[in-house]
Amino acid sequence: MPVALTIYHNPECSKSLKTLQLIRENGIEPTIIEYLRSPPEAATILKLADWLGIGVAELLRTSDGDEADETLSLNEQSLARWLQDNPAALQRPIVVDETNARACIGRPPENVLALLRR
User: Fold this and answer.
1) Which of 3, 4, 13, 57 is an active site residue?
2) pTM for this one?
């Protein structure tokens, strides 16, 4: 059965573009969610963190300054809601294999290759 992937994508991000290119080079056309236009809901963010095996705080882009640092005192649910409302602070890209309940962050883009292997 072929792998069906979803990418939380920012078309202005070079890592996101490279990750999308790698997926396509492997014969997969993923579902593309431009997360700045259609932010994931808090429940989805919690699920992604679980599938990534990390805390929600690790989904924060640390290069985005002090505003993100102030959120680290929030609990997981509150931080997920904050990320829903502030999607630019979300790590990118996030690639999801819903069928196998797996995900990866495409930094570096080659991380996505692990999802293509069974």
Assistant:
1) 13
2) 0.89
